[in-house]
């Protein structure tokens, strides 16, 4: 039996506080549990204590980028789905580097309409669409 939305945990990681907080609010209005982290390092702490079902990650973060964080998540929390989003041109270079190391990730382009984000998150969480990463 699939989990209900209220039991689904979503971690949003974005150094732009307004974006992270807004996404968390959007997910909460749809009855998901949502938490935010404004840096990858804080996200790693949250992952260890809270164990989300989905991590929505900005690609360009200070210090550790979102793709490197996604690799850490998949290695340590394989049941956690990952959805990346970015508005920076550098993203393609980072994705190519990850691809050369055997990691494939899906990236949504910012700005992402809330309905598109919710639909993609729901599809990943309900298993109706396969993730594009290994």
CATH class label: Alpha Beta
Unreliable parts: none
For the biggest β-sheet, the strand order reads 2-1-3-4-5
Distance between the termini: 25 Å
Please provide a written account of the structure:
It is a single chain. This protein has 134 residues and is α/β, with parallel strands linked by helices. It is 43% helix and 18% strand. It has one domain: Rossmann fold, CATH 3.40.50. It has a five-stranded parallel beta sheet with strand order 2-1-3-4-5, with helices on both faces. The longest helix has 13 residues, at 17-29. The relative contact order is 0.16.
Layout of helices and strands:
Elements (H helix, E strand, L loop, with lengths): L8 E5 L3 H13 L3 E5 L2 H11 L3 E5 L7 H11 L4 E6 L4 H10 L6 E3 L4 H13 L8
What are the defining features of this structure?
single chain, 134 residues, alpha/beta, Rossmann fold, five-stranded parallel beta sheet, 43% helix
Quick structural summary:
The chain is an alpha/beta fold and 134 residues long. The chain is built from five helices and five strands; from the N terminus they run βαβαβαβαβα.
């Amino acid at each position: 039996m699939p989990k209900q939305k209220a039991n689904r945990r979503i971690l949003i990681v974005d150094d732009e506080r307004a974006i992270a907080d807004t996404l968390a609010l959007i997910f909460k209005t749809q009855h998901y549990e949502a938490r935010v982290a404004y840096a990858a390092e804080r996200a790693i702490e949250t992952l260890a204590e809270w164990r989300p079902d989905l991590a929505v990650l900005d690609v360009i973060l200070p210090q550790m980028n979102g793709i490197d964080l996604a690799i850490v998540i998949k290695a340590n929390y394989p049941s956690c789905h990952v959805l990346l989003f970015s508005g920076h041109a550098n993203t393609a270079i980072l994705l190519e580097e990850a691809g050369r190391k055997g990691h494939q990730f899906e990236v949504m382009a910012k700005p992402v309409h809330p309905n598109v984000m919710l639909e993609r998150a729901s599809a990943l969480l309900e298993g109706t669409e396969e993730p594009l990463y290994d």
